[in-house]
Write a structure and sequence with these properties.
This protein is mainly alpha-helical and 156 residues long. It is 76% helix and 0% strand.
Length: 156
C-alpha cells in the first residue's frame, strides 16, 4: 500500500516537472497559434536566395517527395508532441487526433507561405503560377513545422 502511494507520488511529481498533462482538444486558439508559428518560421526561410532558384528546378517528383516528407514530419511531430500524452487512446484514436491537426497545420502553412510569397512580390520572379506554387510548397515545409511547434510551446 505504501508502495502504491510512493508510485503515485512519483508519477505526480513527474507530471508536474515534465508537464505530462493530457493534450487539450483542438480549438480555434490552436488555429491562431499555428498561424503565428507558421508565420514565424516561414518568414525566416522565405528570404533565402536559393529558394527562388530551387523552385524553378523542381519537378513534379520533387514536389511529391516534399509533400510526403512534410506529412511524415508533421505526423512525427503530432505524435510525439501531443498524442503520446493521451491517456485514453481508445476514446481518442490516433487517426482522429492526427487528422484534425495535420490538415489544419498544413493548410495554415500553405496559406501563410502563399500569402508571404504574394506579400513580398515573389510572384515577380516566376513567369508561371505553377512555379509560384512550387515556391510556396518549398516554404510550406518550414511553415508546417512552425505550425506544429506552436502546439509544443503551448504544452510547456
Amino acid at each position: 500500500m505504501a508502495r502504491d502511494h510512493l508510485h503515485d507520488d512519483v508519477l505526480s511529481i513527474k507530471r508536474e516537472v515534465l508537464r505530462l498533462t493530457p493534450p487539450e482538444y483542438f480549438s480555434s486558439k490552436d488555429l491562431a497559434r499555428s498561424f503565428f508559428g507558421a508565420l514565424f518560421l516561414a518568414s525566416t526561410f522565405i528570404f533565402s536566395g536559393g529558394l527562388v532558384q530551387q523552385a524553378k528546378l523542381m519537378t513534379n517528383t520533387h514536389i511529391f517527395v516534399l509533400v510526403l516528407v512534410t506529412l511524415i514530419v508533421l505526423t512525427v511531430e503530432i505524435y510525439f508532441i501531443g498524442y503520446h500524452r493521451v491517456q485514453n487512446k481508445r476514446s481518442r484514436p490516433f487517426y482522429e487526433f492526427w487528422g484534425k491537426r495535420v490538415v489544419t497545420f498544413w493548410a495554415v502553412a500553405l496559406v501563410v507561405s502563399f500569402g508571404l510569397s504574394m506579400l513580398y512580390a515573389f510572384d515577380q520572379y516566376f513567369p508561371t503560377t505553377l512555379e509560384l506554387i512550387k515556391f510556396s510548397m518549398i516554404v510550406s515545409f518550414p511553415a508546417s513545422v512552425g505550425a506544429a511547434l506552436a502546439d509544443l510551446l503551448r504544452s510547456y
